[in-house]
Amino acid sequence: MKVSELGEFGVIERLAQLLAAEGSAARDDRLYAGIGDDGAVWLQKDGALLATTDTLVEGVHFVAGKTSWRDLGWKALAVNVSDIAAMGGEPELALVTLLLRDNTDVEDLDELYRGMTEAADAMDIVIAGGDIVRAQEFAISVTATGRAGLDHAKQPKLLRRSAAQAGDVIAVTGTLGGAAGGLAVVQGKQADDRAAQALRERHFRPRPRVDAGHAAVAAHVRCGIDLSDGLMQDLGHICRSSGLGAIVWQDKLPIDDALRATFGEMEAVQLAATGGEDYELLVTGTREQIDVMAGQSNVPITVIGEMVASERHTARLLDGSGKPMELPAAGWDHLRGS
């Protein structure tokens, strides 16, 4: 069997099973959360250490010549900080590994690191070092760490994918679909100048919702994920981890204004539901908890659906008449390339 047959999430599940059966993680109770969340959680006496890693590969995650080195540096750091935000944590430290062709221009590396330092300043995280190796294709891999506090029972105050409850409402920060729309513009989709600029900004310079993650934890929300692979795909991760189903109401989706103006209503809905790399937060909790979170958040919070008891641990998008909508794909899978 090839990894493309299993797909990204099938491979993750297989590796998680192997580690649980044979790895040291199965024998160390300091590992509070491992594979299956946005980051690993390691218990310490005075809190919890969060750790995550992500890689951007030329030709897979970005196209040379269509992404500036400075924007690439920003995004490489931002996607990792977003994982810390998705767990309600405080970002602290980043390590950067560069896979470089031997003919890479030094001036391009300068621009890459200018973008990363801009992001680090904006997101209050320290770049502390890393590694450099030679490779046939350029890639940048970042490992980020963060911290979470403990509650009175000495349990980490976190957002987890597995913590949803039947009857929870589903809410998202900000607007959806802008990053996917920005990618389409980069690839040649026509848009007026203002919309094109707004969509490209969403694609190239995501804004991790660290403060919203803190607001969620303070409101006693305990389930969350960041939207990296697409709304329906990422909500499906929560469904499987929590053993529930989910319904999303199409007419409640907070669709990016520039996206709607450029693509029209139905295509904008599809991009909002399945387009990746928005890096907004999706959380579930009681209506009261979400209202408290919204009152403390620095970005808009929109209720878009609810978690339901279901033997099928999947998410469904319903139209205005309550009928399930057919979507071309749930979201992005790296190994299947769709």
Task: Give an overview in words.
With 338 residues, this protein is an alpha+beta fold. The protein has helices at 3-22, 69-86, 106-123, 178-186, 193-204, 210-218, 231-242, 257-263, 265-274, 287-296; strands at residues 31-33, 40-44, 47-57, 90-100, 126-134, 139-148, 169-173, 223-226, 245-249, 281-285, 301-308, 315-318. β2 and β3 form a beta hairpin. The chain has two domains: 3-18 and 28-148, 2-Layer Sandwich (60s Ribosomal Protein L30, Chain: A), CATH 3.30.1330; 161-318, Alpha-Beta Complex (Phosphoribosyl-aminoimidazole Synthetase, Chain A, domain 2). It has a six-stranded mixed sheet, covered by helices on one side. It has a six-stranded mixed sheet with strand order 8-10-7-11-9-12.
Structural class: alpha+beta
Low-confidence stretches: none
> Oligomeric state of the chains?
single chain
What is the second-level CATH architecture of the largest domain? Alpha-Beta Complex
Using DSSP, what is the number of strands? 12
Give the C-alpha Rg: 19 Å
Q: Please state the overall shape, judged from the principal axes of the Cα atoms.
A: globular
CATH class of the largest domain: Alpha Beta
- Provide the β-strand percentage band: 15-25%
In CATH terms, the superfamily of the largest domain is PurM-like C-terminal domain
Q: What name does the CATH topology of the largest domain carry?
A: Phosphoribosyl-aminoimidazole Synthetase, Chain A, domain 2
Mean of residue pLDDT values = 91
Taking the alpha carbons of the first and last residues, their distance comes to 19 Å
Helix proportion: 25-40%
Number of helices: 10
**Into how many domains do the coordinates divide?**
2
The SSE string, one letter per element, is: HEEEHEHEEEHHHEHEHHEHEE
* Main sheet specs: 6 strands, mixed
Side by side, the strands of the main sheet go 1-2-3-6-4-5
